[in-house]
Amino acid sequence: MHFLSFPSISVQSLKNLYQPFGVNVDVLRLDQIHPLVSGNKWFKLKEYVKQAQEQNKKQLLTFGGAFSNHIVATAAAAKELGLQAIGIIRGERSQQLSHTLQEAEALEMDLYFVSREMYKLKEIPPVVFEHYEGHDMLVVHEGGYGTAGSMGAATILDHCDQRKYSHFITAVGTGTTLSGLVRAANIGQKIIGISVLKNAFSLIEEINALLPQPLQNRYTLLHDFHFRGYAKSTPELIAFMNQWYAATTIPLDFVYTGKAFFAADQLIKEGYFAEGSNILLIHSGGLQGNRSLPKDSLIF
Ligand SMILES: *Cc1c(COP(=O)(O)O)cnc(C)c1O
């Protein structure tokens, strides 16, 4: 598959599941794009990839932690484009690399580990500049955050019958994906973001910084569904993911979509949505993250 072209992405209807609550719910299956590099990460990278091609860059560099889906997506994108991928990774290199970093290395990304303090500064270590002649690199922010990422994410809704929906719901990490949905939505359509981070109250400013003024604050962020924080989980969350799979045959990941869809399910059952609402849940992928759960936690 070419990076800039997408296979048909399906919309799965959950008609029967939520009919008793008076709403229609569909799921946009971005998780089906690619087994490893699934979901919103492809969309967020689209514009950066175009820039790298237009500017004849030789390297694609980005930042991430040991469990970053964005790191793997960048590695895959670079490989496809014939660019050298460079990952600046938070923390020491551990003896046993995470599955995510193993995958990135298998895709020929060069990894540079920096201390947590250094990582915070988002500086490129001098050794990197020494390694790549000409250091002709395109630098992508952590998580693909940025206007280019937002514009790429705005094309997510091209893959469904957008006008049909009253609400869009997505998981929020950096909020870049959410900002793309805000760009794409029409007046009157509501966008709800579920933060997977604990007390990430600066998100609003970070998201608004990606949006033209008239679109700022045209969304709702909910902070009550982080399940103890980023990449943490609880038995309740895991139980929900299993029940949801049994009911829908849709696998969820515990870092992002499990939390977002738990929130949607709870809001629907509490009567948050008016009767007749048409809700689109964005399945943003991330399933490979489940490999860090204890075996047999999940039924899928
Ligand atoms: C990265 C990621 C998100 C968060 O996207 P942002 O644009 O950073 O808010 C959501 N879901 C999955 C599966 C992800 O990998």
Automatic annotation (TrEMBL):
Q: Which residues carry this modification: N6-(pyridoxal phosphate)lysine?
A: 41
Q: Which InterPro entries match?
A: ACCD_DCysDesulf, TrpB-like_PALP, TrpB-like_PALP_sf
Q: Which GO terms describe its molecular function?
A: D-cysteine desulfhydrase activity
Which residues does the entry assign to the active site, renumbered to this chain?
Answer: 68
Q: Does the keyword Cell division apply?
A: no
Q: Where is the Tryptophan synthase beta chain-like PALP domain?
A: 13-285
Q: Which residues form the signal peptide?
A: none
> Which cofactors are named for this entry?
pyridoxal 5'-phosphate
Name used for this protein in its record? Tryptophan synthase beta chain-like PALP domain-containing protein
The answer to whether keyword Transit peptide applies is no
Q: Which superkingdom does the taxonomy of this entry point to?
A: Bacteria
Ordered alphabetically, the record's keywords are:
Pyridoxal phosphate
| The species this protein was found in | Flavisolibacter tropicus
Q: Name one Pfam family in it.
A: PALP
Q: Which PANTHER family match?
A: 1-AMINOCYCLOPROPANE-1-CARBOXYLATE DEAMINASE-RELATED
Q: Which family does it belong to?
A: Belongs to the ACC deaminase/D-cysteine desulfhydrase family.
